[in-house]
Design goal:
mainly alpha; 2 domains; 7% strand
Length: 89
Amino acid sequence: MMIIFDTNILRGITRNNPKFDILRVLKRSGSHLVGVPWMVLEELAAKQVLEYAAAHASANTAIKSLNKMAPWDTSTLLAPLDLEKTKQY
């Protein structure tokens, strides 16, 4: 039997999630094949890149606010956003 997952099922499941453990067990058992279409992987990667970009912008805003408020030189900088590196990850 082959189990094929789509984006809606995999959204929100991380590698540390117990549901992910079930998938590992099914795959290792040899009795079930587990598959994810290429397009689903692309959709999940795109979603993660967008979430990362939003988190980066939020962190950058917080750091700028902190630098303005601190009575001393904080010189705290955030590495520039590198979407290509994020996509590769």
